[in-house]
Specification:
451 residues; alpha/beta; Rossmann fold; 9-stranded mixed sheet; 6-stranded parallel sheet; 15 strands; 29% helix
Length: 451
């Protein structure tokens, strides 16, 4: 079964006349958009532009640049100091502070775009590149909002563009082997998945009051991007704590959940959840909760019982107690991982580690499948150059992100069950939650198809 079979396109994308003109002008300004980039690149090389080059962006840059057919053509970061460090390692690349200027200036002199920014800029940057016919590698979670994930997927599929979400463990042998074991039915049909991370990317405090001028090296307006204007607060936003805040990050669920959700979601071939419900503290409008328990129900698949229950735990709620997940007390759960409960046994999948089949005595003679490692970054580069396909393209990453982000929305309505209509992309009978599926972008930062 392909990603396209699992997640068929819904309603066609309809652009307003204004949106069409903006998009057409952008594409015209950079030449004819292409879905196949390798053939047009000089010497068969992939010319990449990187948006966000510090932290994870620096790791993405190094990993993609390690491919022998990659030419790093452009670097972009809102922090001048970070940009200069990356430029020192890639002296032939052009440097920019604003990704919109970079895309408008370089046009067809680049083939592919890598997005490694804070979450709230993933979709604006990725969609801007897709509109220009560029292949895109975008860090996880794919987007900050549910609506953005649907739109990125639809545009990428409609234009047959090569895409990959930056969820590197998806390609590792240990996770691919675990997925294969589940699909092979080693523990039978799965009825419940428990997933957890003891990390705390929440913030239960009040809005900051210690605002001051941002560092001279930081373009605060560009860092805010589509988000509402506010004063800079040292130590809270840039460079590392934005994940904790509702306007910029997606909390522990968005940061670690996307990694830990990935293998069960893929192995069980899940689609959209029927409903989601969260147990957490009341919303503050500032930060994500520091501890959450999020429950989902998914429709059944060939690998599950009639329906599938899914429970996520984070912060101080993780890991769950062995007795609560129906395991013997002597089974020690790791700080991060997933547990599949099947009709014929259980699979414990640590993050990061080999799967453990339970009870171990029953599976003592089981022979695990031999699955090779795949370089997630190089897989994308090769696909851009016409060799093979990506395994976490937006056809897969979009629905995974939609499901994940519904839990993030539910964190704002603790104890309420959010019934989900995936066809219409709407929360049923809870208008306050439905309003959070799509956000309005700040004036001057609108992107066709998103805002």
């Amino acid at each position: 079964m392909t990603h396209h079979d699992r997640y068929p396109l819904r309603a066609p994308i309809r652009l307003s006349r204004r949106t069409f003109l903006v998009t057409a002008t952008a594409v015209a300004g950079s030449g004819t958009a292409r879905s196949r980039v390798g053939a047009a690149s000089p010497n068969g090389r992939l010319r990449t532009a990187h948006i966000g080059v510090g932290g994870m962006g620096g790791a993405d840059l190094a990993s993609i640049a390690s491919h022998p057919q990659v030419e790093v053509a452009a670097l972009c970061d809102v922090d001048q100091g970070t940009l200069e460090k990356a430029a020192a390692r890639h002296p032939h690349a052009r440097s920019f502070r604003d990704f919109r200027e970079m895309l408008a200036t370089l046009g067809d002199t680049i083939d592919a775009v890598v997005v490694s920014t804070p979450d709230h800029t993933h979709a604006p940057a990725a969609m801007s590149a897709l509109h220009l016919g560029k292949a895109v590698y975008c860090q996880k979670p794919l987007t900050h909002e549910v609506h953005e994930a649907r739109q990125l997927r639809q545009v990428a599929e409609a234009r047959s563009l090569v895409t990959q979400m930056g969820i590197q463990v998806h390609s590792s042998a240990i996770y691919r082997r675990a997925a294969r074991m589940i699909r092979d039915g080693v523990i039978g049909k799965v009825s419940h998945v428990h997933a957890w991370s003891s990390k705390n990317w929440g913030y239960d405090g009040a809005a900051p009051t210690n605002d001051q001028a941002p560092p001279a090296s930081l373009d605060w307006n560009l860092w805010l991007g589509t988000a509402a204007t506010r004063p800079y607060a040292p130590g809270l936003y840039h460079p590392g704590n934005w994940r904790r805040l509702v306007d910029f990050g997606t909390g522990t669920l968005g940061d670690m959940g996307v990694h830990i959700f990935d293998t069960p979601f893929d192995a069980l071939e899940l689609t959209a959840p029927r409903w989601v419900r969260t147990t957490c503290r009341p919303p503050t409008g500032v930060g994500h909760p520091e501890r959450n328990m999020v429950e989902y129900e998914f429709p059944g698949t060939a690998h599950t019982t009639e329906s599938l229950r899914w429970t996520w735990y984070d912060g101080a709620d993780a890991p769950p107690k062995s007795a609560d997940v129906k395991l013997p007390e002597d089974v020690k759960l790791p700080d991060q991982g997933a547990l599949f409960i099947g009709e014929g046994g259980a699979m414990l999948l640590p993050h990061i580690g080999e799967a453990v089949l339970l009870p171990q005595k029953k599976f003592a003679d089981y022979r695990r499948p031999d699955v090779p490692d795949v370089n997630h970054y190089h897989q994308w580069v090769d696909a851009c150059l016409g060799k093979g396909r990506t395994s976490a393209d937006f056809a897969y990453a979009g629905p995974l992100t939609e499901a994940l982000l519904l839990g993030v929305v539910a964190n704002r309505f603790p104890g309420r069950t959010l019934s989900w209509n995936a066809e219409t992309l709407a929360v049923v009978d809870l208008p306050e939650a439905d309003a959070l599926i799509r956000r309005r972008y700040r004036d001057g930062f609108e992107v066709p198809g998103l805002s």
